[in-house]
Give the backbone structure.
Amino acid sequence: MTAPLLIGAVAYTPNVVLIWEGMREYFADTDAPMDFILFSNYGRQVDALLAGNIDIAWNTNLAWVRTVGQSAGECRALAMRDTDTVFQTVMVARAGTGMTGLESLRGKTLALGSQDSAQAAILPVHFLHEAGLGDDAVTLVRINSDVGKHGDTGRSELDALRAVIDGEADAAALGINTWESIGREELMPGAFESFWASPHYSHCNFTALPTLEPDRVDPWVDALFAMDWENPRHREVLEMEGLRRWVPPVLPGYDSLFAAVQAQGLSMRW
Amino acid sequence: MVTGSAPTQPEPPQLQDAGLLLDLVEQLGRAPRHALVKVALRSGDAESQARTIESWCARSGNEMVTLEPGVATIRRGPRLDPFADLDPSQLPGTRLWMYTNFDCNLACDYCCVRSSPRTPRAALGADRVRQLAQEAAAAGVSELILTGGEPFLLPDVDDLVAACTTELPTTLLTNAMLFHGRRLEALRRMDRERLTLQISLDSPSPEIHDTHRGSGSWDRAVAGIRTARQEGFQVKVAATLPYEQTHHVEPFHTFLDTLDIPRSHRVIRALARRGVADHGLELTVETLIPEVTVTATGVYWHPVAAEHNDQLVTRDIFPLADAITLVRDRFSAYRSDAVAAAQWFPCA
């Protein structure tokens, strides 16, 4: 009997346990049983993948970039969520400030989330630089509330918004998921407004090394893609994990983050 | 603002509530599913904050459980479905009970509604039964159940049953002791395809049954069962037993085999501490899955406690759909409270 695949995930919220217990229960009825190991941070998870202690890592985009960097490209993305293919960063300010576009940030203060959050720190700096806004054009306030989690908790982004409320920053950079969680402009018209949104980029993926045998990983990926939103039992897990369906990875969506990590001189290790 | 100009006006209320919104997102985001989270309100407009919380909960699939001065208690979603673990037949509003009357030819010592020959009739009446049956069908009810008292004491029992069987499959509870003369004629006029008779019999021999229901009642009930079967009716037999006896029923089943009553048509229920019974299971609205029950005086939570004020839902029988909705909403609330109570009292 084939040993279950070991999947690594980071415990950024208590519900992660429910999610992975649900996943394990689902896969137990397939040809690809699995088990899971939880980590407190992505750095240790990437280390575990490279050391062969886990078979697959449920990685953020930054964890993927670091896995690629540390393995010299000898790794593969297996799948991602549908929501991971259309991730965005949004710039948010208090309503009525009249800010329109990134150029509006010139001479202003931008609150960023945790230094290892692609959506709330690394990519915003990248997008500013691409728009011709160098390090002395915009004052950056960095709020490192949840380093190690790559921004998964959303806490640093909420703290960045608090900085805007408190007048300590003119704007905040958020992941689109955080913007959605506070209801965009609809829930409290007159509070916040988004004045810029990035192009789509890719976020999380299941990462494996080429040493993982196809006859073990292929059935697992097939079973993953077979999870069905219309099946109430599957939907419970899918809802908690924030997707409707699993999809093949969109690798070009990581180009901007690779460029950002290189340009900003960020370490390939945690 | 950071750009250099100090604020000269108070923060607009939208930003006051924005801070609360961020607190909601953060605290609920790190809470386990279905956990209860207390979120402190901020100084300022409490009503505005309440609206913000309600709007956010509606949008995010979380549930505001209580709102007290200074604090809101919110349950991390998704919303619990109070009906998720119920069998479809148990869903409130699937069946509708109607007490046609409360007088009875017997005075059983455990009757949950205190029926006897001296109990006031309190009849629903043919017009109301007809309207209830029609509204039940429209409201999605799938089965009507008529009970009493003893419905065959009513001179128009066949009209009442016809009003029901015209709309939905119907079960008629009876002690089957009156199937003679005009009452037998009335029985014969009933719809054999759409009507099931549920007849009470508490034991495979007279002793226990007669102790509760009166001397000679067992013989007459068994005769009634045989008559009903001979007349071509579907018959269920229902026994009311003290809880401690409900698992020692094989002799009863053996006897019912001789009456050609299928196993699926046998109801063994525990004695409830209601009505004239001074012992039995304690049943409350919090512990009972409701079965919408209508009497001449109102809508009740369950047939076992009809005419008991603690289980009165509403005095308004019509429109029936509203009463059913009220029962469902209260059941949903009781279930939510039960989950909350379980969380307030951890076992360690």
